[in-house]
Task: structure prediction
Amino acid sequence: MSIAARKFLIGLILLLLAGAGIGWIYGHTDWGLLAAALLALIWQVRQLLSFERALRTGNFDDFRRGEGIWEQIFSRFRFERERAVRRKQNYRTLLREIRKSTNAMPDGAVTLDTNNEIVVCNRAAKELAGIKRKKDRGQRVDNILRDPELAKLLHSDDHTSTIEMMSPVRDGDWLNCRVVPYGANQKLLLLRDVTERMRLVKMRRDFVANASHELRSPLTVISGYLDALADDDNIPETWQKPVVQMRGQAARMRQILGELLELSRLESAGPAKLDQSVDVLGLLESTTQALEGHANVARIVIDASSAAKLQGNGAEIETVIVNLLSNAIRYTPADGEITVGWHSGADGADLIVADTGEGIESEHIQRLTERFFRVDKGRSRDDGGVGLGLAIVKHVLARHDAELIVSSEVGTGSKFRCHFPVDRVVVEAPMPLAGGS
Ligand code: ADP
Result:
């Protein structure tokens, strides 16, 4: 117990004793005691009322004159109150500093709650994507930034992927978006201006497309003359072998240019013509028929459990099948076996090309879809490989929201699985019932 509390109790007891003593002198101890208790009560009530008034008005000056335990209560209260005010001011200053620094950031940052509703955002988010801190607070971010890829990213748990989208407020500008977990249940949407990078990518793409296009015409002329020369029996014998070699190399250059042009076309093509109902099983059968039966080609088996159609582009899906199947043929010995499959289920559909060929070392698998990547450059070149086939496959699959999953073991074989999401699989309408009125 503090000294003030002790003093307060002693004072109270002395007052009551004094009241009782005076009462006893006059023959009314109880009245004396009662009068002293009333006096103590009135004094306490007075202090309580002043305290209430001070709380209401915020003026605590009166309590500087307080006494005993009340003085202690008042000064403690004043101290705590002043500390709270100081702390609030510190927080306010800190908050202002944080806001200043986030506003100085060139990247947009938007804090979202579990429902993807905007909690707070910085100035760059307004400049890049038009999100306003006060006006858009509580709004769903996917109602403001309408992009299907962003909607997917917001609903997935993938915190490493990023997507590119056009800025809704700055014409021709591109934004890179990423979602990272933040706080207890919140997310942070990060927006970065990548217009310059996209411009460079486009420049590179256009350059490759233009160069390939421009090289095609002179190469056609050269190939034409080389074909004519190769068929001409009158050319000197010393030139016969070089001409055949030149013709072979010209054909290879035509193949490279053709595949480069195909890649550029896929990269710049929009979603047009991706709405055909593609008979994947039919394509597998016709491609297999065209490729099997040649000398040195392994046995090809079709293992399909589905006849489901795929919503996409028939020619592009055929390119995927031809590329995967010709790779499997190229890298599988004649006594091996190649299996092509088409299966569909609740989570989508799988187009599979598996072989019992030489296989691929695990360290190379990640890089297979890079342009011009070949595990064994010399060997692949001799076999007619360009190193663009799987890059084309990857692009076509990305255009169809699909992914390529490669598994392989050296000496055992490889499996290339193209997984299509369920909304790409066309559900055939049930046949109408016969009969009726
Ligand atoms: P290429 O025209 O050289 O075949 P691709 O892009 O189609 O180019 O393939 C890239 C590389 O992947 C190939 O050079 C080869 O090393 C490897 N590869 C592709 N498919 C297979 C397969 N079925 N078995 C073994 N290796 C393969």
The longest strand covers residues 174-182. The pocket of adenosine-5'-diphosphate is lined by residues 323, 327-328, 331, 355, 357-358, 360, 368, 373-376, 380, 385-391, 414 (CB under 6 Å).
